[in-house]
Amino acid sequence: MPFLDSHCHLDRFFREGNLPAILDRAKAAEVNQLVTIGTEPEDWSIYRELVHSHPNLIAYTVGLHPNEVKEDWQQVVAAIDEHLVGERRPVAVGEIGLDYFRLPKDESKAAPLKDLQKAAFASQLALAKQVDLPVVIHCRDSFNDCLRCIDDAGIDWAKVVFHCFSEGPDQVLLLRERGGRASFTGIITYGSAENVRQAALAQGLDRLMLETDCPYLAPAPHRGNPNEPAFLRHTAKFCADLFEIDLETLGQLTTLNARTFYGLE
Ligand SMILES: [Zn+2]
Ligand SMILES: [Zn+2]
User: Fold this and answer.
1) CATH (domain of 64)
2) 226-262 pLDDT, tens per residue?
3) 8 CA distance to ligand 2 centroid (A)?
4) Distant-in-sequence, close-in-space partners of 132: CB < 8 Å, separation ≥ 6
5) Continuous segment of H or E residues that includes residue 139
6) Ligand number with the minimum distance to the CA of 213
7) How many structural domains is the chain composed of?
8) Residues near ligand 2 ion, CB 5 Å cutoff
9) Segment 125-138, tens digit of pLDDT
10) CA 114 to CA 118: how far, in whole Å?
């Protein structure tokens, strides 16, 4: 039975030479498909090569992560175009969004940085709309602003996933009523994350997608250690118990949901 890691970052494994071992362990855990998510031009290029060498295993996305947005963002976003032509194109634009977590507490210092992130986000949403690709949203301490930007962009919400969802059921319903969805990392296995579990249940199985977001955020029982795609299985088992269905059904459903969302075979 196949599992699919709908959001991982393989660039560090590649740079450190660990990728073959990581992919072997993923296969041994029946995690048979990986979507590796772009954050800046350096990883986009690595991922394009990986998709060429592993076409049935790996798909990739391109996007400028909000934490990577600098004054030169327009030039960087323009470079996405090079990836949108030719074979083995990206399957989504992302991860893009707003991240207010690391900004200065002083609002007069934070405001211009928020404006920069919003401009880069709006530009990439417009691009995704133009080329008709789904979008992977990174949203941290910025939920209402993210909603507003996406509403303003006029994107089809069926093509929107808020990844690493860490809000509660009220917020997930705001996505759901628009036609959007949330995907869940190992955070859902953490003792303190009751609101995240309630959000997953409120969204329901029909839109559930699972991800590792590795190398960050390892699920229990690996919490605190580096994460990898094979550990998706722990999150899947946890969610099967949460939804009171068997692991095989959970795996089939979430894999189908992610394949449909990204347009994968
Ligand atoms: Zn993210
Ligand atoms: Zn990520």
Assistant:
1) 3.20.20.140
2) 999 999 999 999 999 999 999 999 999 999 999 999 9
3) 6
4) none
5) strand 135-140
6) 2
7) 1
8) 37, 213
9) 999 999 999 999 99
10) 6
